[in-house]
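Exam revision sheet. Question 4 asks you to relate a sequence to its structure. Input first:
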Amino acid sequence: MNIHHIQRATVALIAAAAAASASAEQIVADTNTIANPTAVVTFNLFDGLVTTGPVDVGPVPGQIIFSSVPFATVGAFAQDLNENGLWGARGTPDSGLVSTPTGDGNFLSSAFVGGRGEVGFSFATPVSSVGAFFNQFQEEGVANSMLLIAYDGAGNILESFGYSVNTAFDSYNEGKFLGFSRATADIYGFGIADGTFVLDNLTVAVVPEPGTTALMFAGLGLVGWLARRTAAR
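Answer key, structure tokens:
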């Protein structure tokens, strides 16, 4: 096999590995697991804005646009989640309210009738990871869930999964960090549908997975080594 065949084989191997790792990994964690975030939206700059959007919520103008069908509250400060407890802006040190993964101020709350509709975030540039801290309204003995969706630049669904958050009836600001992580930055939108929920600390990042980056550089290094070896003959 000559150097050109080896180069083509190596490039094909790298491309196949990248394609295999391009599918999203579901993020389900107790705290934020997205390292080196590009942006974190806390909603603390909003104060009970009831809207369907569009609303610019990112730290950089035009970076992250929020929209909802039907209404949602941007910058909510208190929400009774029934059997799943209570969410509220973090209290003062003497209030008796403890700081939790989401307890850093206001948040976003859906206001869906019958649990139908979708909250969405659009990104000016694609991201590789996106997630937020969630909880949801839960009635006793009634199953509830929400659907998380990652969209591409054309509005097509890249990945989706359903999840049901369950916390104690007397909990405060508890929940789960949910989202997606992909090897390539191709997520242009993040949607949450079919549930009455609250979310905070929306986090996005444009960082390829270490394994994919390492594989790419290893392949390029192999091609360079073979080229030098061939030239030396």
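Marking note for examiners. The longest strand covers residues 118-127.
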